[in-house]
Amino acid sequence: MNKIENTPFDVTGLEDAKLCIAELSRRNDELKTACEAAKSANNAKTIFLANMSHEIRTPMNSILGFSELALDYEIPPKAREYLHNIRESANWLLSIINDILDISKIEAGSIELERIPFDMSELFFHCQSGLTHKANNKGLLLCCDAQKIPGKLVMGDPARLRQVITNLLSNAVKFTSAGSVIVMATVNRIEDGRATISFEVTDTGMGMTPQQMSRIFEPFAQADNSISRKFGGTGLGLTITKNIVDAMGGNLEVKSTPGVGTTFSFTLVLDLIEEAEALAILSQNAIIEKPNFVGEVLICEDNELNQIVICENLAKVGLKPTIAVNGKEVVDMVKDRLASDKPFFDLIFMDIYVPVMDGMEAASIITKMGVTTPIVALTANAIRKMPEQYKKSGMCDYLCKPFTSQDLWSCLSKYIIVESYSEIEKDHHSAEEQKMLKQLRLNFVTDNQETYSKLEMALKSGDIKTAHRLAHTVKSNAAHINETKLQESAATVEAKLEGGNNLLEKGQLNSFRLDIAHVLEKLMPLLHEANAKVVAQVDDSESVREIVARLEPLLAKKDPHCETMLDEICTIPDSEILIKMIENFKFRQAMQELENIKKRWGLS
Q1: What SS3 class is residue 560?
Q2: Contact assessment for residue 255 and residue 262, using Cβ atoms and an 8 Å cutoff
Q3: What is the pLDDT, as a whole number, of residue 90?
């Protein structure tokens, strides 16, 4: 970027007015050029982070997946311990990646810190175990020592502190070819239930000059350009580390001598807690508080798997979901509700990419009607930043797909009054999520047998819009069933078909074909299992009448709790279509199919 001049100029005498105006115009042009360059640099950063999210998530998902599979086998205790550590480290790294991607939080100074008890020695052990193998391969002594406080634990954010220590350790190991890397936590003072603790990470590595040290905390910068070529890295680690330390109330400092080594240090003041009290708090964390609401949520979503996920989650917290499959249908439902005596929707979830009328246009129309109901965008963007155009369309918030139940609860709690809270055990919550995941995977393998063929046919006929929508749907569905590789290849196809242009390369399409075929093959046992289920069916109209009597009012109210009756519905002969409709929350079609069943059994 060119440096903008800031020298004064003489405007004495009116005869020089034209020259002054010309000079001001020239400087204004320079300022505009500088602003455009800054904007371009910021856009480049955003694109970089989006690309990095894809690049990092794919191998990390493989590490998690294969370690989970390996743990299912009979293996020696030591190997099981190693695999467990791999899985724990990978899970932790994924959570850090999510935070790194949201660099805008750090730039805005809005880092959120937890305050829970933790053991500093245990934290240091995990930091060390993740880098021991790399240090050993380089012949380095890696030593971690945290001074204990008898009978006490510290209070703070262990995940963030672990991120800080690991970032500093990782850099130290990376830039040290011989000697040692040592991290120490020393208790300087204990006063009024608080401990002042100094942290120090020292290496005998290549060191830095004062000029290099002046740049290392700048985002996307490293000591010099040769660093990224030789050692790799994004140049974000120390920026994030410094911001986290600042948020914790510390100040990250660096001392370094070229050829001798480097020391990073900071001091934190942390509250202390009795060990027994801390254990009681940690045991309470095994309980999740689930909010309960009363109300109705309108959902604009054309993707069946997405419908299932959000409807199931809403039903579990007491909210009635109503589905619209495109923006026009949402607008019509809003108009109907405004013209009727029925209570209005408490919230509207709006998918962006829906047919007929997209989410942004629908949100704009609804806002212009004077509707003040919160409209929340559903978005699959990797970077969690509310796009400006969503706000301009009248949307007040966003929910990233795929979302966790806690993400949804947090969003709902902003706009709908919480009636009460229910405590649920984490194990029970996890079991429920696994049950839903199995159902989503079954739906995926059932519904996507012909998807690639349809996409290929659409491309051959020049129907790029249909091909784009198919890729978009697969991308979203793959995310919900944790098939990251397919999600990434579908995202590539979607991006190459954006805007009605076909920029797909043969290799990219082939990768998508192989990935979806692999996932379908892997999930095929679920389909066989479902098809093999033998259910004793009823053979008298009175039994059918009893089931219909309880099911019909639930369908009439579009109540997702009708899913709890699926085992009973299975006992009615030829009820497969009805079951499919209910599983996909297509209540209107399910009601029509129920009428067909009633006619067959003479119950109309």
Answers
A1: helix
A2: yes
A3: 78
